[in-house]
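note to self — DONT lose this again. spent like an hour looking for the file last time. sequence + predicted structure for the chain T wanted, 60 res
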Amino acid sequence: MRNLLIMLEHGLFSVYLFSIGIYGLITSRSMVRALMCLELILNSVNINLINFPIYLIVDN
């Protein structure tokens, strides 16, 4: 049960990072800021890529 809560926290953190990145990418006027927001989006995708295979391990 504890592992599922930890995975949920990581998933919510990833969604939070992704939404901040999308918002910043849409509203930024500076290219540097847009690249930083794109990096946030990529970091959230990497967290998801690490987080989701754990669901497969827990179910089996």
